[in-house]
Amino acid sequence: WILPILTLLLGITIEVLVIVWLEREISASIQQRIGPEYAGPLGLLQAIADGTKLLFKEDILPSRGDIPLFSIGPSIAVISILLSFLVIPLGYRFVLADLSIGVFLWIAISSIAPIGLLMAGYSSNNKYSFSGGLRAAAQSISYEIPQPRSLGRHSRLYQEILSYFLRKKELPECLSVTC
C-alpha cells in the first residue's frame, strides 16, 4: 500500500507544480510580460522556490483571534483535497480505494474544504479576513451544484461503455481517467 500512496503523492506534487507553472506562464502572456524565469530552466522550479520561502517565513498568529481554529482551518481544507485523490482511478490496476460509491465519496470529501476556508477566515477575528473567507468558501461552494450533475453524466456514460466491453468479454487496458 505504501508504494501506490507515495506514487500518488508524487504525482499530485508534480501535477500541482505543472499547473502553477502553466498558470503563471499563461497569466504572463495574457498580461504581455515575462513569466517566471529565475528558478530553474524556464522557471520550472519557481513554485518549489516559493514553497521553500513560505516554509521559512515567520508564523504570525492573530493576537485577538482563536489560535487553535486559525491553525486547524487551513489543515482541514488541504487534508480534504488530498483525501479526495484516494478514490480517483489512475489506471486499470492502479486504484487505491475501489469503491462502488467512489464518485459520491469524492463529492462528499471535496465538500469539506469550504468549512476549512470559513474556519480560517472567521478565526482571525477580523472583518476583512472573515469576508475573504466567506468569498473563498462561496467560490468553492458555487462549483458544488454543477459538479455532481456533470460527474453523474460522465459516470453514467462510463458504466455504459464498461457494460458494452464486458458483454464482448474483452476489456481494454486503457479504461480509466488518464486515457
TrEMBL record:
- InterPro entries recorded for this chain? NADH_UbQ_OxRdtase_su1/FPO, NADH_UbQ_OxRdtase_su1_CS
Say which family it is in.
Belongs to the complex I subunit 1 family.
Entry GO terms, CC = plasma membrane
Asked if the Swiss-Prot or TrEMBL record annotates the protein with the keyword Repeat, the reply is no
> What are the record keywords, sorted?
Membrane, NAD, Transmembrane, Transmembrane helix
Q: What is its main location?
A: membrane
- GO molecular function annotations of the record: NADH dehydrogenase activity
Name it: NADH-plastoquinone oxidoreductase subunit 1
Q: How does it sit in the membrane?
A: Multi-pass membrane protein
Segments traversing the membrane: 6-23, 67-88, 94-120
Q: Which organism is it from?
A: Oryza brachyantha
Q: Enumerate the Pfam families for this protein.
A: NADHdh (PF00146)
Q: Which GO terms describe its biological process?
A: aerobic respiration
Its subcellular locations are: Cell membrane; Membrane
Specify the taxonomic lineage.
Eukaryota, Viridiplantae, Streptophyta, Embryophyta, Tracheophyta
